[in-house]
Specification:
Oligomer: homodimer
CATH topology of the largest domain in chain A: Rossmann fold
Strand content of chain A: 15-25%
Largest interface: A-B, 47 and 47 residues
Number of strands of chain A: 12
Helix content of chain A: 40-55%
Number of domains of chain A: 3
Largest sheet of chain A: 6 strands, parallel
Radius of gyration of chain A: 26 Å
Strand order of the largest sheet of chain A: 2-1-3-4-5-11
Order of helices and strands of chain A: HHHHEHEHEHEEHEHEHEHEHEHEE
Shape of chain A: elongated
CATH superfamily of the largest domain in chain A: Response regulator
CATH architecture of the largest domain in chain A: 3-Layer(aba) Sandwich
Distance between the termini of chain A: 80 Å
CATH class of the largest domain in chain A: Alpha Beta
Structural class of chain A: alpha/beta
Chain lengths: 336, 336
DNA sequence: CTGAAAGCGCTTACAG
DNA sequence: CTGAAAGCGCTTACAG
C-alpha cells in the first residue's frame, strides 16, 4: 500500500479509500482514482487480511465445529456451509469435537483466540456452559443439528419429534406392532426428541405396551448395536426397528447382515439421514432424510444476520424431514 | 496485555516475554514472573492471534483444498489432517474446488490473502500454473492424492500404477479375460497412472487385445457410467470391470443394480477407495483401499517441515494400496 | 534485569 | 478534495 501511495504520490489513506470503494463518499478526484487503480494493478497489490482484521476487528472467518467431519452427514453439511459462507466472502475454519465436551471447549478457545466472527456449532453433551458463555459474551453463534434447551442461542434443527413419529406411523400402517427404537444414550435434545416422537406415536397407536427404546453409548456403539440387534430379533420378538442416526443405522445393518436376518420379513428397518449404503442394502432402506442443504444454508444465514447485528430475537428453526419409503419397511408378513 | 503491564507495573515487553516462556533467556526476575502470571490469570488474558500474526508473519493456519469435502474420501482425509495439524497448534481453513481450476485459483487467492502458512492441495486438472506460482514464490505447499509431473512440489500420493496392476492380476488369477477399466477423462497423473497400471498388467498377462479403457467426464459421470456399464455387459461381453475412483464405483454399482446384473457371474467388479456401500452390496465388493490415514499424516508432516524450513529437497511419497478381496471378484464361472 | 520505542499493514477520525 | 497521524495488539531489537 505504501508502494502504491509512493508511486502515485498520495497518502496511504487515499489508497485505502479507493481500494475499498469509498472514492464516492470521500470524493476523491477521478484522476487520482484512476492512477491508484492502475498502480495497484501494476504492483499486483493484495491486501493483507490480517492487518485489515487487526484494525477492523472482524476476520470474515467462521468457526465450524461438528462432531466428526469424516461422517458424511457432517461432510455434506460442511460443504453447504462452505459454499454459503464463500458467497459472502467468509472462510471457514473446521474442527471435529468427537462429541467430546473437553475437545469442543478447546476448539472454541482456539477459534476465539483467532478472532472468528462467529460459530456454527454442533454442541456435544454437557457443553451448555460453554455455549452460554459465548452467548453472554455476545459472540455470534448458531447451534445446528441440535440445540440446548434453556440456552438462548439461535438454532437450526430437524423436527426430530415429527420424524420418528412418522416413522412409527408408517410402520404401524404396514402392520408392524412390536417396534423398537435404537438411540444413543445421550441427554442431548435431538436424541430425546427422537425418542419422544417414537414414544408418543406408539402410545397414539395404542401400542404403548410394546414400547422398547434401547440405547448404546457413543464410544462402543458399533459392538453394542450388533449385540442389541441380535437380541431384539431373537429374544424380544421385535418386528421392526428404527435407528436414530446415520451411524447407528450402519452399525445395525452390519448386524442384520451378519446374522442374515431377512428384511423386512424377520425385521423391518428404518434408517436415519441417508447414506449410499442404504441404497445397496437388500432390500433398499426406508429412511428419514434430513434436509442437509437447508440446515446448512439457514445456519449461515442466521449467523451472518447476527454478525451484522440485524437479529434482535432468538431464532429457533425446525425443518421437516422426508420419509423415503422403500423395501425395508414393506408390508408386514403377518398382514394381508 | 497493557492491562497486565499496568497492573503489575512493568512494560508490555516483559509481559510478552513471560507469557511466551522467554523469561529464562531474558532473565526476568522470578518475582516479576510470578506477578505477571498471576495477573494474566486474574484478567483471563487471551492473546490476540491476529495481532501476533501480523507481527510475526505466521498465522499457524493451513489451507486445505480438496475436490469436495462432502465426498467421504476427502472427509476422512480432512479429519486426519485436522487432527495432525492441531497436534502442532495449527488450524485448518477448508475449501472445495469441485475439480474446477477457476474455483481452485480463487480459493488459493483467498487463502493467500489470509496469510495461511502453507497449503495442502488436491490439484485439479489444468492448475499446474497456479501451483508453479506458489512454488516459485516459496509458499509451502504439498500436493496430495495427485501430483503434477514436472512441477517441483512435494507430493503424497498412492502408488496408483501398482494398485490397478494388482487389481488386474487378481482378476486374471480368478479366470477373467475380458477386463475393462472405467476412469475419468482426465489428464491428471493419478488417473493416467491407474490407466497405465491396468494396461501394462493386461499386456503382461497376454491380454493386450482385450484392453478396454472407458472414460467419463466429471460433470456427467453418473449418467455416463450408467450407460457405459450396460453397454459393457451387453455389447462388449466384458467379464470384469475395475472402477478407478470411489464415486465411479458407486455410479457403476447403481447401474449394476438397476440392470440386475449378477455379480460376479455376469460381471465381476473391483472398486476404489472404500465406502460402506461396498460392504452392503451383494456380494460385498472387492476394492483397492487407500491408506487415507497415512496420506493425511504424511502430508501434514511434510508441510510443517517445509514451513519450518527443514526441507531441502522435493519429497515425493508413494504409499501402497491394499487389495480387499471379497465376493464381487470371486472365481469366474468359466473356470473350474 | 527492565523500559521505551519501532513496526507488522492496514483503517479512519481529524484537520485542513 | 487530500494528508498527517493515531491506533488495532502484539513482538523484538536496542539501549540502559
Amino acid at each position: 500500500m505504501k508502494d502504491i501511495a509512493g508511486k502515485v504520490g498520495v497518502s496511504t489513506a487515499l489508497v485505502s479509500y479507493v481500494l475499498n470503494g469509498l472514492e464516492k463518499e470521500k470524493r476523491v478526484s477521478p484522476a487520482v482514482v484512476e492512477k491508484i487503480r492502475a498502480a495497484a494493478r501494476e504492483l499486483n497489490y493484495k491486501p493483507n487480511q490480517i492487518a485489515r482484521s487487526l484494525r477492523s476487528g472482524s476476520t470474515n472467518t467462521l468457526g465450524l465445529i461438528v462432531a466428526d467431519i469424516a461422517n458424511p452427514f457432517f461432510g455434506q453439511l460442511a460443504r453447504v456451509i462452505e459454499d454459503e459462507a464463500s458467497r459472502f466472502q467468509y472462510v471457514v475454519i473446521l474442527g471435529s469435537s468427537d462429541e467430546d465436551c473437553a475437545k469442543s471447549a478447546s476448539l472454541i478457545d482456539t477459534l476465539l483466540d483467532r478472532q472468528v466472527d462467529g460459530f456454527i456449532l454442533v454442541p456435544s453433551e454437557g457443553c451448555a456452559e460453554q455455549v452460554e458463555l459465548l452467548v453472554s459474551r455476545n459472540i455470534p453463534v448458531v447451534l445446528t443439528d441440535r440445540y440446548l434447551p434453556g440456552i438462548p442461542a439461535h438454532a437450526v434443527v430437524l423436527d426430530n419429534y415429527g420424524a420418528t413419529r412418522e416413522a412409527v406411523s408408517h410402520l404401524v400402517g404396514n402392520g408392524y406392532r412390536r417396534i423398537a427404537l435404537v438411540a444413543y444414550a445421550s441427554s442431548l435434545v435431538h436424541m430425546q426428541e427422537r425418542i419422544r416422537g417414537y414414544c408418543e406415536a406408539m402410545d397414539a397407536a395404542g401400542m404403548g405396551a410394546n414400547k422398547l427404546v434401547e440405547t448404546v453409548s457413543y464410544d462402543s456403539a458399533k459392538a453394542d448395536t450388533e449385540k442389541l440387534v441380535a437380541a431384539l430379533v431373537k429374544e424380544q420378538k421385535t418386528e421392526a426397528v428404527i435407528f436414530a442416526t446415520n451411524a447407528l443405522t450402519l452399525f445395525g445393518l452390519y448386524a442384520v447382515k451378519k446374522h442374515n436376518f431377512r428384511v423386512p420379513e424377520e425385521l423391518a428397518v428404518i434408517g436415519f439421514d441417508g447414506n449410499e449404503a442404504f441404497d445397496f442394502f437388500t432390500p433398499p432402506l426406508t429412511y428419514l432424510r434430513q434436509p442437509v442443504e437447508a440446515i446448512g444454508r439457514e445456519s449461515v444465514r442466521i449467523l451472518l444476520e447476527q454478525i451484522r447485528g440485524e437479529l434482535h430475537q432468538t431464532v429457533h428453526l425446525e425443518l421437516k424431514h422426508q420419509l423415503v419409503e422403500r423395501g425395508s419397511s414393506g408390508k408386514s408378513p403377518g398382514v394381508d
